[in-house]
């Protein structure tokens, strides 16, 4: 009996072992041959765009490791069914696949796929193949960020088992025919839908919200960011009872934010940035119980206040920047104890920072910049235990208070960047601190120098009064330091050594520095230096070239030379910007004496072109400026062999000789400024065009003809050749340059008549500034050209934001004549327009076509031989601020229509043959006798010669008829305001007017326009 029982037990154990082995074999079923073959064929259909496997995403499969001699189920990124060996999962995230995904690709032979991820590859804008519809077992499909384009195929709707569908960030995809409804109507089990970046602007998708609500009842995540959606958001989204994440950024809803969003209590993430929302933001959205992430930034017309946040708030990320939210920061901010990032920048918040902010122990980034916050900043804010980034710039803070617990400076940088540190109120992990553009006064609290984890510190543009040296900064990891224009005096203690912080950026503009800071000697990292507008004198030392410089700005100092001794042994360099303008740098002969001979080569430019810009130079120089110095001699021929910079500015020196031909042959040249030197000979004849945007050769001694090759410069915006000896006819052939904005040919020897353009498109369509003054042009004024100056015809009404010609580093300048004096505009405002044809021999009448140039601000036709009457059409130049018709042969009366030029602040009609009564009212009440001198037939104020009664009454009635006594008094007051501005800002009339919009009270501006509009109604308008 016992033996039978033992035998039974033995047999049972054997059976269990056999079953176990069978299970183990089944659970490791090898890859099927057809599956392996399909995968290898798919791999071969693409090229790998990455040069190194290190670029692959380590969390996904590395397709380059697939080998035919291994089981495909063991390949990276492959998941197989353990029972059948079919491939059920394929993850090729960021595998650098490159090539088209065609419909016959072997990928579509893997019919058992359940999860497919092709995120982060490049399929060369190929359409999504309809064959995806054959992979009906798919539950997860991710084709995001893979450079697909075209219509999303309707076959995707056949994948009825999908739980997650992600087609986002394929910015060539669209949903039009069929539309959104056709795509998702059979996906009732879908929980995550991400179509961010898909163009859904077609009208068929107008009801997207209702479609989602009806078709996807199980939806948890919906992302339709940047889908070109418009119109209000429909309340049907309320029916999505499981919805937790809603991303609708970067659409064009142009509506108020719907209140119902505050009732979707399941929401954990809500992103509504950049959607053109306006009106008051519903406060109850802030208080959603599960909400962890709220982004409503870049809605500049969105208003409202921050609410009282509940104690149990789950918020971790709150971003409202660039809205019009305002008011004081509530004390309840301290209730957001899980908050990680808080961005309230560029709003209108005011008042102090609430003390409760110290409760935000998980906060890593705090941005309160660009508001109206004021008061003191407590040091405890800098010691929040998790805080890494603190941005308080562009506010009205006046001081920083160092609390007693933060006066112990024993903390060392060994704690920095160590995630194992336990939070402590006496330890600061702050890495980025920006306090610039405030009203901080007094001394810098010493704890600032002992924030030893700091990487970036910006305290520029304040009102501090303190003396600092580099040795005070104990943050050995400090890489970016800006103390510019802060009121600080930076001293040189000569105690710096190799343990000093290795900076990447050191900006110390306007810090009363008189010598190069000694710590720079010990810098080994590539460096950006700005020491401009200081008092540094002597030579630029040779040791400064020993380390790699990216940018160096030493402009506006007292430097006299450059020590380049041994520079060749300190290469290669990789400087992008070298700005030495506005110093006293001058040439020095080998014997050490300074010279100014123009028949010698400039030694400084020779050294710079050989070393700083020479063949061993590494990189692409962007800016080289040594303008407004005392360089002399010729430009050396070595400049032709250099790495020519994009911006090359030698203006206002004493250089001479001929301009090297090669300077016009560099395709990367953007700005060439040789203004204010002694160059002679002809302008180089071979302009290859390229990227040249600005050419300024003004105030030299250049002669000959204009080079016809300038027509190759299709990017040219500024051409200034004034004050030379150029002898040529009007260059009508330049009229076809599509971007030409400024044309200055004044004070040369141009001659002949100016005929109309051969074709309308060759009529200088973008020209804003044209100065042909003081030449020898003859004939009639070019009426046809006035009709083709399209940029001067359209009125630019937005005076609130000033934009300038040029880029962030170099902005063009131009001289214009106002009140008979040349005025240099250091920057050219895009909206500024002027025509100056003075000092020529034009004859005939002033053409009526000038009246079409409604954006014209300055018109100068003085010193010609013009005859006939002043055309009444000049009264249509509603933006005109300066009008000079003096020293001609004009006759007849001054048109009363000129009284309508309400911005006119400069008028000169002197030395003509005008007669009759001077119009009265508006701006004409501000002009002096000199505006009319030399016209013996004129009468009436401001002249002492009185008019006959009939004439005076007629003029007065035409000027002020229809206005009440009070309106006339208001008008006189307004005129005085504008007169004050014009006088207060001298000849800068344009600036005066623009500032006037901000200075004059709104009620006066409104009254001004009411008076103007009423007069036009009374007289029928013009």
From TrEMBL:
InterPro entries: Leu-rich_rpt, Leu-rich_rpt_typical-subtyp, LRR_dom_sf, LRR_N_plant-typ, RLP23-like. It is found in: Cell membrane. Keywords: Cell membrane, Glycoprotein, Leucine-rich repeat, Membrane, Repeat, Signal, Transmembrane, Transmembrane helix. Residues 1-27 form the signal peptide. The keyword Signal applies. Gene3D superfamilies: Ribonuclease Inhibitor. The keyword NADP does not apply. Residues 33-81 form the Leucine-rich repeat-containing N-terminal plant-type domain. GO terms for cellular component: plasma membrane. It is a single-pass type I membrane protein. It comes from the Eukaryota. The chain crosses the membrane at residues 980-1000. SUPFAM superfamilies: L domain-like. It holds the Pfam family LRR_8. This is Leucine-rich repeat-containing N-terminal plant-type domain-containing protein. It comes from Nelumbo nucifera (Sacred lotus).
């Amino acid at each position: 009996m016992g033996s039978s029982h033992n035998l039974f037990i033995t047999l049972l154990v054997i059976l269990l072992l056999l079953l176990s082995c069978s299970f183990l074999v089944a659970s490791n079923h090898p890859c099927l041959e057809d599956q392996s073959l399909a995968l290898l064929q798919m791999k071969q259909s693409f090229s790998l765009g990455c040069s190194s496997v290190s670029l692959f995403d380590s969390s996904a499969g590395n397709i380059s490791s697939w080998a035919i001699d291994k089981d495909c189920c063991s390949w990276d990124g492959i998941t197989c069914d353990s029972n059948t060996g079919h491939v059920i999962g394929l993850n090729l995230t960021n595998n650098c696949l490159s090539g088209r995904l065609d419909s016959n690709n072997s990928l579509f032979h893997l019919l058992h796929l359940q999860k497919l991820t092709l995120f982060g590859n490049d399929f060369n804008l190929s359409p999504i193949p309809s064959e995806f519809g054959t992979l009906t077992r798919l539950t997860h499909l991710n084709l995001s960020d893979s450079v697909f384009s075209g219509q999303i195929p309707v076959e995707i709707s056949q994948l009825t088992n999908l739980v997650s569908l992600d087609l986002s960030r394929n910015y060539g995809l669209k949903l039009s025919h069929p539309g959104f409804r056709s795509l998702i109507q059979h996906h009732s089990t879908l929980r995550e839908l991400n179509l961010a970046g898909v163009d859904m602007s077609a009208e068929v998708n107008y009801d997207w919200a209702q479609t989602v609500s009806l078709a996807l009842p199980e939806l948890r995540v919906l992302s339709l960011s940047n889908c070109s959606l418009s119109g209000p958001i429909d309340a049907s989204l309320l029916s999505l009872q499981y919805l937790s994440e809603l991303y609708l950024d970067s659409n064009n809803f142009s509506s108020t934010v719907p209140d119902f969003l505050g009732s979707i209590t399941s929401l954990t993430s809500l992103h509504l940035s950049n959607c053109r929302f306006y009106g008051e933001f519903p406060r109850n959205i802030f208080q959603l119980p599960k909400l962890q992430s709220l982004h409503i930034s870049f809605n500049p017309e969105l208003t409202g206040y921050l609410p009282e946040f509940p104690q149990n708030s789950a918020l971790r990320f709150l971003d409202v920047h660039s809205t019009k939210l305002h008011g004081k920061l509530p004390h309840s901010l301290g209730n957001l104890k899980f908050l990680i990032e808080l961005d309230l920048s560029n709003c209108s918040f005011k008042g102090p920072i609430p003390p409760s902010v110290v409760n935000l122990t998980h906060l890593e980034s705090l941005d309160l910049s660009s508001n109206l916050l004021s008061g003191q900043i407590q040091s405890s804010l800098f010691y929040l235990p998790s805080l890494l980034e603190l941005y308080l710039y562009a506010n009205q803070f006046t001081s920083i208070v160092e609390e007693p617990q933060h006066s112990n400076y024993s903390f060392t940088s060994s704690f920095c960047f160590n995630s194992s540190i336990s939070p402590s109120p006496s330890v600061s992990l702050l890495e980025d601190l920006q306090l610039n553009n405030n009203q901080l006064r007094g001394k810098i609290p010493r704890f600032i120098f002992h924030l030893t984890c700091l990487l970036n510190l910006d305290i520029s543009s304040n009102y501090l009064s303190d003396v600092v040296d580099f040795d005070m900064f104990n943050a050995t990891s400090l890489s970016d330091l800006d103390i510019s224009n802060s009121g600080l005096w930076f001293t040189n203690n000569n105690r710096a050594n190799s343990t000093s912080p290795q900076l990447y950026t050191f900006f110390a503009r306007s810090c009363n520095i008189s010598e190069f800071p000694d710590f720079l000697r010990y810098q080994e990292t590539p460096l950006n230096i700005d020491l401009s507008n200081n008092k540094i004198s002597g030579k630029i030392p040779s040791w400064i070239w020993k380390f790699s410089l990216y940018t160096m700005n030493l402009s506006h100092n007292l430097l006299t030379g450059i020590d380049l001794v041994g520079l060749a042994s300190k290469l290669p360099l990789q400087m992008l910007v070298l700005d030495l303008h506005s110093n006293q740098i001058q040439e020095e002969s080998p014997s050490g004496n300074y010279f100014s001979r123009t028949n010698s080569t400039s030694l400084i430019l020779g050294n710079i072109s050989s070393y700083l810009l020479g063949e061993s130079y590494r990189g692409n120089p962007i800016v080289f400026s040594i303008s407004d110095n005392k360089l002399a001699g010729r430009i050396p021929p070595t400049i032709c062999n250099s790495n020519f910079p994009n911006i090359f500015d030698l203006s206002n020196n004493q250089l001479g000789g001929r301009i090297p031909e090669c300077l016009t042959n560099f395709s990367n040249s953007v700005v060439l400024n040789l203004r204010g030197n002694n160059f002679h000979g002809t302008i180089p004849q071979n302009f290859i065009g390229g990227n040249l945007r600005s050419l300024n050769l003004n105030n030299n001694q250049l002669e000959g003809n204009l080079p016809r090759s300038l027509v190759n410069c299709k990017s040219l915006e500024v051409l200034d050749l004034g004050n030379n000896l150029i002898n040529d006819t009007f260059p009508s052939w330049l009229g076809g340059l599509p971007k030409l904005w400024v044309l200055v040919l004044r004070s040369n020897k141009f001659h002949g008549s100016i005929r109309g353009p051969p074709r309308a498109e060759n009529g200088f369509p973008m020209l804003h500034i044209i100065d042909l003054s003081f030449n020898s042009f003859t004939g009639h004024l070019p009426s046809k050209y006035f009709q083709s100056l399209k940029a001067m015809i359209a009125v630019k009404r937005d005076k609130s934001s000033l934009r300038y010609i040029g880029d962030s580093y170099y902005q063009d300048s131009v001289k214009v004549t106002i009140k008979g004096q040349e005025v240099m505009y250091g920057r050219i405002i895009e909206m500024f327009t002027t025509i100056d044809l003075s000092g020529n021999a034009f004859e005939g009448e002033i053409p009526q076509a000038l009246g079409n140039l409604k954006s014209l601000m300055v018109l100068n036709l003085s010193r010609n031989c013009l005859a006939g009457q002043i055309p009444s059409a000049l009264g249509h130049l509603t933006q005109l601020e300066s009008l000079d018709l003096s020293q001609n042969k004009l006759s007849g009366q001054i048109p009363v229509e000129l009284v309508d030029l309400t911005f006119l602040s400069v008028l000169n009609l002197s030395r003509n043959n005008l007669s009759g009564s001077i119009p009265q009212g508006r701006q004409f009440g501000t002009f002096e006798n000199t505006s009319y001198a030399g016209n013996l037939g004129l009468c009436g104020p401001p002249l002492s010669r009185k008019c006959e009664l009939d004439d005076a009454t007629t003029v007065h009635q035409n000027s002020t008829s229809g206005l009440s006594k009070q309106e006339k008094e208001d008008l006189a007051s307004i005129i005085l305001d504008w007169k004050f501005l014009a006088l207060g800002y001298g000849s800068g009339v344009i600036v005066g007017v623009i500032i006037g919009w901000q200075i004059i009270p709104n009620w006066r501006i409104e009254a001004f326009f009411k008076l103007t509009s009423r007069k036009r109604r009374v007289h029928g308008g013009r």
